[in-house]
Amino acid sequence: MPRIEALIMKAQLRWVGHVVRMDDARLPKMMIFSQLASGGVRLFEEKLPKSLDQKQQARKERIPNPTSAVTCPTCGRVCASAFGYHSYVRRH
């Protein structure tokens, strides 16, 4: 039995073969083989809004809730929960 990746690749190649033989005025062919008006293809990282970086930084700097925070006795790191502390101690 072929792997799922092989089946997907086969279906994609079959579909691209149809698109190549299409008339140049067809929308699928225009979408695949056309150049973007604004330049080249943007990378995934360029598509992400800059606010995501700011949100990630704010999450990292957030102070844990003092009622559920657990401090490591050896290094003093503050973990947000007991589960996080036990996970941290395993790596410690």
Radius of gyration of CA atoms, rounded to a whole number = 25 Å
Low-pLDDT sequence parts: none
Mean pLDDT: 80
Q: Output the strand order for the largest sheet.
A: 1-2
What does the largest sheet look like?
2 strands, antiparallel
End-to-end CA span? 44 Å
Principal-axis shape equals elongated
Helix content: 40-55%
Could you tell me the strand content as a percent range? under 5%
Tell me the total number of β-strands.
2
Q: How many domains, in number, for the residues? A: 2
Structural class: mainly alpha
Tell me the number of helical segments per DSSP (H or I, 4 or more residues long): 5
Q: How do the SSEs run, as a string of H and E?
A: HHHHEEH
Can you give a write-up of this model?
The protein is mostly helical and 92 residues long. The protein folds into two domains: 1-36, no CATH class; 64-92. 54% of the residues lie in helices and 4% in strands. The chain is built from five helices and two strands; from the N terminus they run ααααββα. The protein has helices at residues 4-20, 27-33, 44-47, 50-61, 82-91; strands spanning 70-71, 78-79.
Which keywords apply here?
mainly alpha; 92 residues; single chain; elongated
